[in-house]
Amino acid sequence: MKNIFILFILFLSFGLSAQSVTDLENQLSTASSVSEKLALKYQIASLLVNKDKDKAETYAKEAFKLAQDKKNIGMQTEISYLLGRIYAKKRNDRNAKVWFESSLKYAKQDKNVDFIVKSVEKISDIYVKDRKFRDAYNVAKDAFQYFSTTGMSVGQMQSNYDVQKAKISRQERDLLKQKAQLEKQIGILERDRSDLSKSNSTLSRKTKELQEEKVQIQDEKILVEEEKERIEEVVNQQEDHINSLSAKQAKAELKNKTLELEKVKIESEKKEARVQLQEAELAGKRNQLAVYGLAGLAILLILTALLLYSRYRSKKKSAKELKDKNLLIEEERQRSDELLLNILPAPIAAELKEFGQAKAQKYNDTTVLFTDFKNFTSIAEQLTPEKLVEELDTCFKAFDFIISQYDDIEKIKTIGDAYMAASGLVPRKTLPTNMVKAALEMQEFLDEIKAERQAKGLPFFEARIGLHTGSVVAGVVGVKKFAYDIWGDTVNIAARMEANCEPGRVNLSETTRNLVQYQFNTVHRGKIMAKNKGEVDMYYVS
Questions:
Q1: What is the tens place of the pLDDT at every residue in 254-311?
Q2: Which of 141, 150, 184, 536 has its CA 20 to 30 A from that of 200?
Q3: Which residues pair with 361 in a beta bridge?
Q4: Coil/strand/helix, residue 472
Q5: Would you say the C-alpha torsion 48, 50, 54, 56 has a positive or negative sign?
Q6: How far is C-alpha 223 from the chain's CA centre?
Q7: Rounded to the nearest 10 degrees, what angle do helices 154-244 and 247-343 cross at?
Q8: End-to-end Cα distance, the chain
Q9: Alpha-carbon dihedral of residues 312, 317, 320, 324, nearest 10 degrees?
Q10: Residue 536 in 3-state DSSP?
Q11: Whether residues 329 and 374 fall in one domain
């Protein structure tokens, strides 16, 4: 019995509370291993990011030192990213950039794609905030080169996502099966507890019956005592009677009375022995019932504790696993959405996701931009195919980065060495101001590249850029490898503006120029014939 109660106390001592900062700090004070201290300090720093940034910074730096000592590259990656976030919240961009760069370095060593992408994004945001577009572009370019070198591609990332999603689905089904088995075990334990409760009720009833039987035996004992007193009184009366008789009569009567007294005494001793025997049996049954009752109670309490602890651990484990899996699924979903947004405008992507198709729409104030490189064919003959694609990719990535700084501009497509973008693909009226800014920044980027390559005696690209504003029809075409495109005279006139532009300049149609003449200085440069439009005036942005 002593061992049973000790076991019961041990089971009751198990209990886990919610992981607050105070709980984690208490665990940290008793932690013995370096790995445990590292994990606890990282968790505390993560919880304090939005509450106490200075304290979060202290814990994070201590965790980073432990990760360095353990040479744990994965934790150095995560803690560096966390410190970058802390400094960003403290508006200390300089230290934030240092730690994000550290996270990027460790992520590349660990081949951690998620933290490479997130670190590059954070560093680019800091550069863009400081208007250092070239530095932001170089960071993104380095990341693309890293993925190309390591053999990672968008298709592989999507394939990994699909495999991971299927694996998570299987694990969720396994968890549901385990949950069903656990609920079945809980039902069995509930029935066992019910049976124990019934047994306890039976024991209580039998105990009550034994108590009633004991009372009855005590009553019989009292009756026997009263009978003995009555017999003694009769004996005394007989003695008095004998004294009054003659010796012979007294002797005979005394003999008879003695025999009767002996019989009564024997009966009395038998009754007393029977009472003592019944009392002993009653005491034995009472002790046995007490043992059974205590044992049943202990078993019931142990089973209850085991049941509650098992349910708590199972629920906590299931909740944690489901939370982790849901977080992973959400991250993969966001990555898939980002890939879709790289191909389509946000409203079109949302419409495709919801309805499976996107309706064509007409927009009346759309500005279309065309770029084309001068002497591309002759330059292509001077470069190897690999170098040609690399140079072209560098320029188009820079163009992508420049237009990504303006939320009203969408890249439409590239056709050979031509690049096409549009702004104003929204139902409200817009101005081409941002499109003109983006065109000038493209020429500025190409001027920088031109200066670098001229200094090295290498061939370089010069681009013609043309813009026109008007109505277009936009929509998604195709089922496999679908594409978002625009059509209309506006597109044709923008292409004519580009074709009649000088390298290194930005050529505007009269319509576009009239919309931005108060924001930019323009120079009239003559007219051209446009199909279905007659002569159209052209203007350079000076």
A1: 666 666 667 767 777 777 777 777 777 777 777 777 777 777 777 878 888 887 877 7
A2: 184
A3: 474
A4: strand
A5: positive
A6: 81
A7: 170
A8: 98
A9: -170
A10: strand
A11: no
**What pLDDT score was predicted for residue 2?**
37
Residue bearing the bigger pLDDT, 148 or 464: 464
Distance, CA of 132 to CA of 93 (rounded, Å): 13
CA distance 532 to 110: 59
Question: Hey, how many other C-beta atoms are within 10 angstroms of the C-beta on 495?
Answer: 18
Confidence check: pLDDT of 17 > 70:
no
198 and 144 in a single domain? The answer is no
What is the three-class DSSP state of 29?
A: helix
DSSP 180-206: HHHHHHHHHHHHHHHHHHHHHHHHHHH
Residues 304 and 194 in one domain: yes
CA 529 to the chain's CA centroid: 60
Instruction: Tell which wins on pLDDT, 467 or 265.
Output: 467
C-alpha–C-alpha distance, residues 469 and 533, integer Å: 13
Total domain count for the chain? Answer: 3
The secondary element (H helix, E strand) that includes residue 509 is strand 506-509
Q: Look up residue 502 and give its DSSP letter.
A: P
- What CA–CA distance (Å, rounded) separates 254 from 188? 76
Q: Compute the distance between CA of residue 244 and CA of residue 240 in angstroms, rounded to an integer.
A: 7
Query: Which CATH number goes with the domain that contains 141?
Result: 1.25.40.10
Residue 161 belongs to some domain of the structure: no
- In this structure, what token pair is assigned to residue 209? 């019956």
DSSP string computed for 413-456? EEETTEEEEEE--SSS---SHHHHHHHHHHHHHHHHHHHHHHHT
- Domain containing 59 equals 2-152
The mean of the pLDDT values for the chain is: 81
Q: pTM for the whole thing?
A: 0.48
Q: Running DSSP on this structure, what letter comes out for residue 526? A: E
Residue 498 has pLDDT above 90, yes or no: yes
Phi, psi of 344 (to 5 degrees): -125, 155
Q: Same domain, yes or no, for 506 and 416?
A: yes
Distance of CA 46 to the CA centre of its chain: 14
Q: Tell me how far apart the alpha carbons of residues 63 and 83 are, in angstroms, rounded to a whole number.
A: 11
The answer to whether residues 206 and 303 belong to one domain is yes
pLDDT per residue over 505-516, tens digit each? 999 999 999 999
Helix ranges, 130-153 (H) = 133-150
Whether residue 257 is found in the same domain as residue 365: no
Output the pLDDT for position 18. 42
The CA distances from residue 296 to 7, 84, 282, 292, in Å, are 14, 59, 21, 6
Whether 404 shows a pLDDT value over 60: the answer reads: yes
- 372 and 417 in contact (C-beta within 8 Å)? yes
Same domain assignment for residues 268 and 397: no
